[in-house]
Design goal:
The protein is an alpha+beta fold and 173 residues long. It is built from one helix and nine strands; from the N terminus they run H-E-E-E-E-E-E-E-E-E. The strands form two sheets. Strands 1, 2, 4, 5, 6 and 8 form a six-stranded antiparallel beta sheet that branches. Strands 7-3-9 form a three-stranded antiparallel beta sheet, with no helix packed on it.
């Protein structure tokens, strides 16, 4: 035990004495390594929509049924952009539901009180193609957690059958 205490005192003097006298001390060998500590925080968004928007039933030859609404739920850490593609059956600038080669055109609009760019009226949701560069066209504040979409069928109802289309919503942040 005496030799352990002697060794500790000797080592302490080797460190303290040179600081006090400015003189040399016994050689002290050490090794070290450094390591970076890092955490990347990313923004996150989730989006969900009902599986289907259903107009109900319409009679062949009748006018289009009343518009229907659906709600898209969005949760983002910050402001976000919402877009929707043209659907699977679009033609030109028209979205269309199809059944056996017949079509029913329809439009989508969003509620103007929810949109982040303060539009005066409801705005049509344009047909954002997947090849569009940049962010989708509709900007929302992070506090907007649901967007109401109104679907409106158009024209005279064609032959009987179930008409459908598939659209995709895109959220960018």
């Amino acid at each position: 035990m005496y030799s352990t205490i002697k060794t500790l005192i000797k080592r302490a003097l080797c460190v303290v004495l040179p600081m006090l006298t400015g003189g040399p001390a016994e050689a002290f060998v050490s090794a070290g390594a450094s390591q970076q500590v890092q955490l990347t925080v990313v923004a996150a968004c989730t989006v969900s929509a009902p599986a289907a928007v259903t107009f109900g039933n319409a009679v062949t030859g009748s006018a289009a049924p009343s518009p229907v609404t659906t709600t898209i739920s969005v949760s983002c850490d910050g402001n976000y952009y919402l877009g929707v593609n043209a659907g699977a059956n679009w033609s030109g600038t028209t979205r269309r539901m199809t059944n056996a080669g017949a079509y029913i055109p329809y439009t989508l609009t969003e509620n103007s009180t929810e949109i982040g760019d303060n539009l005066a009226a409801a705005q049509a949701l344009g047909m954002m193609q997947t090849t569009d560069a940049g962010k989708p066209p509709h900007n929302f504040a992070s506090t907007v957690t649901s967007v109401t979409i109104t679907a409106t069928a158009q024209g005279t109802m064609p032959a009987p059958g179930t008409y459908a289309d598939t659209i995709t919503y895109t959220v960018a942040w």
